[in-house]
Specification:
69% of the residues lie in helices and 0% in strands. It has 241 residues and is mostly helical. Helix 5 (119-135) packs antiparallel against helix 6.
Length: 241
């Protein structure tokens, strides 16, 4: 028997293998090609979207009045949840607050928090929203918002604002704790003289040592000088008549 298969036998075996595995092989190859094409399309589309969002944001910053409002709406529609939309909403919130439109400013900041924005921008929005609540006299709402600040970049600012709120409420011990926490978050080596003044100003006074009853003065008997010996009178016999 020959050690080698004939060409016909090899061809038959190849046909059998292909009939068994050919379909799955072609399917896998097609999926791989489709995945590669799809990834390239997605990457290209995402790059175009980022470039478009960047251009829109730059146009938003340069525009004024009605043109600025129109671009803001376009940004809302096209890049919802992105960092550029969050930046836009933060700008709009600041402008609304400066125009005394507090409700509009609160709404813009809340949108940043509720949207799928980057975490650091959500924390920034929370700090600014809490400050608006504080300025409006709603300390409870401000403290509730500050609880949501998680990122290390804004925890220090959140704690300092908590301290300011506690001072306004007359809770100086809580304010001192918040200020101390803010200092720890920001780092002891960071130059924050105003915060240091707040920490010292709310520090509890030194407790005086307990004062007991004053000891009674020790009564000492006065020293009595011993009498000097007196000369004795001479006897009668020695007295001349």
């Amino acid at each position: 028997m020959s050690d080698y298969l004939s060409e016909e036998e090899q061809l038959d075996r190849l046909k059998n293998w292909w009939s068994t595995n050919g379909t799955s092989l072609l399917t896998g190859l097609a999926l791989a090609v489709a995945g590669l094409v799809g990834w390239r399309w997605y990457d290209h589309s995402a790059t175009e979207a980022r470039e478009s969002a960047s251009d829109l944001y730059e146009s938003f910053l340069a525009a004024e009045d009605e043109g600025r409002a129109a671009l803001a709406e376009q940004l809302d529609e096209n890049i919802e949840g992105s960092a550029y939309q969050a930046f836009t909403l933060l700008h709009r919130a600041r402008e609304a607050a400066e125009a005394d439109s507090v409700e509009a400013a609160v709404a813009y900041l809340q949108r940043v928090i509720d949207a799928d924005s980057p975490g650091s921008l959500q924390d920034l929005a929370r700090v600014r929203l809490a400050r608006l609540h504080q300025q409006g006299g709603d300390s409870a709402a401000a403290l509730t918002v500050l609880v949501g600040v998680r990122g290390s970049g804004y925890r220090g600012l959140a704690q300092e604002l908590k301290g300011d709120i506690h001072v306004e409420q007359g809770e100086r011990s809580l304010a001192h704790e918040a200020y101390r926490s803010a200092r720890q978050e920001m780092g002891e080596d960071r130059d924050r003289p105003i915060l240091d003044i707040k920490i010292n100003d709310t520090a509890p006074p030194d407790q005086p040592e307990p004062q007991g009853a004053e000891p009674e003065p020790e009564i000492t008997e006065p020293e009595v000088a011993e009498p000097e010996p007196q000369p004795q009178p001479e006897s009668a016999e020695a007295v001349p008549e």
